[in-house]
Structures are given as C-alpha cells and as structure tokens.
Amino acid sequence: MDNKKKILVVEDEATLQKALNDVLVQEGYNVLSALDGMLGLDLALKEKPDLILLDVILPKMDGFEVLKKLRENDSQIPIIILTNLSDISDIQKALDLGATTYLVKADFHLDDVLKKIKETLSKN
Amino acid sequence: MINKIIYKVFFKDCRENNLGLWQCPGFLFLMMGFINIASMLGVYVIVREYNVPELVVFSVSAVSVIIFSIGSSAINGFQQIAKANKMKSEFVSIASHQLKAPLSGMRWATDILLRDKNKCLSDKQAEYLKDIQENTSRMIRLINDLLDVSRIESGKMDIGLQTVDLSGILKTVIKELSSFALANNAELVVSVDKDLGSVKTDSIRIKMVMQNFIDNAIKYIGSENGIIKISLKNKGDEVVFTVEDNGSGIPEKDQKKIFDKFFRSGNIAKKQTIGTGLGLYIAKAAVESSNGSIGFESKEKKGSIFWFRLPARNS
Predict the structure, then answer these.
(1) What is the DSSP string of B8-44?
(2) Which residue of B has its CA nearest to A105?
(3) How far apart are CA B296 and CA B106, in angstroms?
(4) What is B162-313's CATH number?
(5) Number of Cα atoms under 13 Å in the Cβ half of residue A62
(6) Residue B240: what are its φ and ψ, rounded to 5°?
(7) CATH homologous superfamily of domain A6-117?
(8) How far apart are the first and last CA of chain A?
(9) Is B105–A106 a contact, with Cβ atoms under 8 angstroms apart?
(10) What is the DSSP letter of B254?
(11) How many inter-chain contacts (A to B, CB under 8 Å) are there?
C-alpha cells in the first residue's frame, strides 16, 4: 500500500537531523531518525529502510562500527556516509567497509545531498 | 652595534617564539662557545703551572660534563619547538573539524529557508539569506583551506588520483564564477582543445586550483574592461591549463614569494581585503602531488599568466 521509500537518518547534531528530516519529508519520503549509533543499528535491522544516511562521529557507537555490523549482518541496504571528516584515509575506510557513497557535509548543499539520495535509490 | 648583532643572531627568534633563556638554542650555543674557549685556556694554564696529569683529566672531565648538560638543554629547546609546531598543526585540524559542524548546520538551515522562498520570504529577506549563505560558504572554503595547509605541513596531503576530465570540471567552474566575473566587469574567454585527452589527478583539488586561478584573475582585474583568457590545451604528453589576465600584475619583488603560505602581494592587499594567501600555496602542493608543474609570468600593471601542466594519459 504505502510505496513511499523509507530513509533512516543517523545523525546526532540536532540542527542537521532536523534539516534532513524536513527536506526528506517535503520530498515525500518516510523518515526514521536515530540520534546515536546504537539506535541507528537497531532501527536499520528492524525496519529495513531503503537507504541509510549515516554520520561517522556518533555517541554510543560510531558510524564505521554501525556500517561494519550492518554488512556483517548481510544487510545490502545502500548507505550514504554523511560526515565532516574529509581525510582520504577516512573516505577509503568507509568505502572498504561497504559504504555506497561518501559525502562531506559542509561541502554539499541540501539539494546536492537530495540528488545523491535519488541517484542511489534509483540504482538499487 | 655589536649588542644589536648579538641580540639579532642569538636571541631574537627565541624572544619571538616565547622560549626561555635556557631553552634558547642560540643563547646555549653562545654559552657553549665561551665555555669551550675558557676551558681550553684553563687546561693550558693548569698544564703549564702544575704539570699534574690527574688534575688535567679532572678538569677536562668537569668541562665535558658542563658542555654535555648545556648541549642537552639545547636539544630540549629544539624538541620544544618541534612539539609546538606539531601541536599547532593538530590544533588547526581539530578546530577546523569542530567549526565544520555548526557551519553545515547554517548552510542547510538557510538552504531550507531559501527552498520555499516563494511562499513567505520578501525579496529583501531572500537577498539577506543569500548573503548569509554566501558568507557561510566563504567560511567553509577558508576552513577547507586551513585543513589542507595542516595536511600539507604534516605530510598528509594524500591525494586520490583518478582519471579526470578537465574540460568538464572547467565548465562547472566557469558556470560558478560567471556572475562574479560579470559583477567585476570581467569577460571570460574560454578555449578548450577538442581532443584534450584525460589526466590523472584529484578531481576536487584540481577544481580548487582552476577556481583559484580564475577567481584571482577576476578579483585583481584592476581595470574597467578586464579580459581573462582561459585555455586548456593538449601539448602531446601534457595537458596545459592557462589563465591570462590584463589586470594588476605582480610586482617583481613579490614574484618569488607568490607561492608562499599566507603571502599576499602588496599591490593587491591594499585593494582587496578578501583573501588569505593560501590559495596558490595549496594549488602548488596539489599540482605537484599529481606529478604536474605550476608557474606564472607577470608584469606589474600589464597582467599575469598562471599555468599548470599535468602529464597526459595516453590510452
């Protein structure tokens, strides 16, 4: 019945969480929010979203760990890493762990993030 | 006079770097010199007067201990300097990362407000919001520059080399800068070789370099009708990017320092307060780590040509 795509946003910064939430709802997605890594992992496994936006520096469990655990659980959900870490070593680590795309928050406008989300959803 | 010279050679740097006297390598070396000379003379006197070998051995050992301890203080001083330098790089890196989070928040919040501008914002309000957004972008660019500088200094400017289509990147850059050029009465004339081939470099960094060249040319245009010629050419085994302007040019005395960190040429710093002097420093590191070369020619009041060359990929 409900064929809205479901997106899980794992982000601990309230402003960013809110902004992503608002814009995704405006665009007609179902949005789930998690403010820490542990809750993010739980929701990802239970709710099986169509896509996950995942921050790296998170309370309780960092994004790399969440990513690793999800891939270990055979989850194939596309994951967009959305962080402000911009060292090549961090990007490489995320991609090695199985992230679909890596975006540096400060370098992207919301519209560009949306474009990436649409692109990723259409590929999967 | 001599006082001044001694101060300049041995103490000035330490005073400026907040190093204490006993951590100051210059001062410690001076002391060591005096002690060396005094001890030579002392040993000579002792040998002549007493002719007791034990006494000579004793005095030489005592002097050695003193010199050794002064030497270790000097090394300590060097280590302090190295440590301070490392801490500075780490501080810049941590502070930059911390600043990025609130700035992303500001950027996205204004993004959302501007998204539904048709609904509730007046033109003036939208204009001011755009000002906030532009200033946020400027801060983000500055922070990215600082992060790059701290990476270059700590030898971590790791660059992701991939096959890159320079003409595509140039198109985006021109699009982004066209309104800035218009506002400054500068005409952009672009010519790109049809059969350009590809190069291996870091797409984000090389975009920054192209942006920097063109942005500088527009910023320092200096005259009413500026013409900026931008070209991408295939020279066989190299792809060459040039930006030629008829702007203020760079005074000859400043030309040597143009790629130095934080350096801004005197003639432009007066006119344009915006600018950090980091752009070309980073550009040099970026081009060179892609195995390319970078340079310029310039005449004051006539204009400048900036160029970089990257090895072409033949396949």
Answers:
(1) IIIIHHHHHTT--GGG-HHHHHHHHHHHHHHHHHHHH
(2) B104
(3) 38
(4) 3.30.565.10
(5) 8
(6) -115, 130
(7) Response regulator (3.40.50.2300)
(8) 20
(9) no
(10) G
(11) 58
- Chain B residue numbers touching A91 (CB-CB < 8 A): 160
Distance of CA B249 to CAs B155, B217, B223, Å?
32, 9, 11
Average pLDDT over residues A100-110: 87
Q: Domain residues of chain A, as ranges?
A: 6-117
Nearest CB to A16 within list B108, B151, B159:
B108
Query: Which pLDDT value is given to residue A1?
Result: 43
Residue A31's CB: how many other CB atoms inside 10 A? 20
Amino acid at residue number B209: V
- In chain B, where the domains are located: 1-156, 162-313
pLDDT digits (tens, 9 = 90+) for B134-177: 888 888 888 888 888 888 877 777 677 788 888 888 988 888 78
pLDDT above 60: residue A43: yes
Candidate from B100, B151, B158 with C-beta closest to A106: B100
Nearest to A8 by CA among A55, A60, A74, A57: A55
Of residues A41, A42, A54, A38, the one with CA closest to residue A90: A54
